[in-house]
Amino acid sequence: MKLISRAIAIFLFLIFFGFALKNTQEVTLDFFLNYEIRGPLVLILLGFFASGAVLGVLAMTPALFRHRRNASKNKKALTSLQKEQEAQRVAREAAPQVDSIRNI
């Protein structure tokens, strides 16, 4: 499986590298207020891809913190329930011993 994933990764790298070599012509991006950026097409695409990935991660951040907060609350609740269950088990085990001592 590891060999197959490496082969796929190498194949994708070669495809993207060939794409980069074929798209080196200079392009111009025109923005508002007569602002423009000139550069190789592949670098501009890479920049937009990277900025999209960063924005995607930033968009997921609130949900990540919400899930962590819920997991922390659930972990605390589970710990308290386990402590209560352990205390009840100890009390049940100790109760017959107390009764047997009283009978003596």
How does this model look, in words?
- This is DUF1049 domain-containing protein.
- Residues 22-85 form the Lipopolysaccharide assembly protein A domain.
- The chain has a two-stranded antiparallel sheet.
- It has helices at residues 2-22, 41-103; strands spanning 26-30, 36-40.
- The chain is elongated, with a radius of gyration of 31 Å.
- The chain has one domain (2-103).
- A hairpin with a 5-residue loop joins strand 1 (26-30) and strand 2 (36-40).
- The protein starts with a helix and ends with a helix.
- It is built from 2 helices and 2 strands.
The DSSP helix count reads 2
Helix content: over 70%
Structural class: mainly alpha
Uncertain regions spanning at least 5 consecutive residues: none
Quick check: average pLDDT? 87
Distance between the termini: 69 Å
Order of strands across the widest beta sheet? Answer: 1-2
Query: What is the domain total for the residues?
Result: 1
Number of strands: 2
Label this structure with key terms.
104 residues, mainly alpha, two-stranded antiparallel sheet, 81% helix, elongated, membrane, transmembrane, transmembrane helix, DUF1049 domain-containing protein
How is the secondary structure organized here?
Blueprint: H1 2-22, E1 26-30, E2 36-40, H2 41-103
Antiparallel strand pairs: 1-2
What's a quick, concise take on this entry?
With 104 residues, the chain is mainly α. It has two helices and two strands, in the order αββα. The chain has a two-stranded antiparallel ribbon.
